[in-house]
Amino acid sequence: MKSILVLGKGDTQYSDRNRARFVDYAKKAGFEVLASDYHELGKLGSFKNEKINALFFFPYTFWNANCEVPEDTKLYGTSRAAYEKFSKYFLEVQGELEQKFRGHDIHYVIPPQNAPIDRDKVETISRLRANGVPTSEPVDYGSVDEIAGKATPKRGVFIKCRYGSEGKGITVLRHDKWVTNYKVEGNQLANYGVYDKWEFTEITGRMDLLGQLLQNAVIVEREILTPDNFGGMKFDLRAYVVGNVVPHLFIRLNNVQKEVTNYSQGATIKHHPETGIKEDCLRAAREIAKNAAKAMGLEFVGIDIMFDGSLENPKVVEAQAFTDFPDIRNFNMAKYMAGEGSGLFKE
Length: 347
Ligand SMILES: Nc1ncnc2c1ncn2[C@@H]1O[C@H](COP(=O)(O)OP(=O)(O)O)[C@@H](O)[C@H]1O
Ligand SMILES: [Mg+2]
Known about the structure:
By secondary structure, this protein is of the alpha+beta class.
């Protein structure tokens, strides 16, 4: 019987559903399971086995209290301090776990030192590239003028907040049109609400707003040109890596004018095997996703891949350690992870 320690708890029944489901399946599969939120480690009982498998879910309680702070009026997704708090927290949790379970050998599916990395887009892209994973291409820039000049008639420039997610805080410069999905309030960039749709506003030629944006932590990338495989829709591919396998993938499609393919920003999903993408392209995407997972040091991760110009040219855009699970009607990730085949948990 293997032992699994499940940490974290959603802040709603909905955000907790994947974790709750996983705990159920793992118990049914005969694992010894202990589960608690991160701040309640002290209340946990003890494990029989020497080997403990730790599976982390998103630390909502900590995040909501410390990182997503309502009175923080900064530009969304640009706070280094929030990222540092988040990173430090995982190391503290690791310290506590090692103290509490002294004498045990803890195997981390999501190692504490790697857990926060995907929230830093600069670090993520640089790690992936250092490990030979093809990614979106970062653009070096000095001045505001220089960056504006990088948008050519063929290819625009994507500016994303460095620590953001859910397709929020994105600005796109094309040679003849600039747009941002920050809220534009007079001559200030501001935020929409956490759960709003972040709609794009045209800001062509607004050097003042661009200057303001670049005073914050951002990543600047060359635009990836989505090939026309889905009636002109913009799309990307999400591959789930579990151990050494990609057990499921899907594509996310959105109107090109929407600029982003995040589900939270209105994208629709087509699951495998109904993506219409040829098996050899999917095979290449799975290999890239597995290499990306290795580069990030994560045994369970969602990897997002775009295609530049054609399906033969996959590029990783981002990684997600605390990924949502696929719709259960298409793939039961909780059951898969708890199954023998996942190989995720050690004896
Ligand atoms: N370099 C790029 N070129 C074209 N589209 C991009 C580029 N980078 C990101 N996107 C689009 O924007 C979306 C959000 O970017 P991403 O890096 O995944 O940030 P987030 O953490 O907000 O999801 C992606 O899903 C993709 O649709
Ligand atoms: Mg994304």
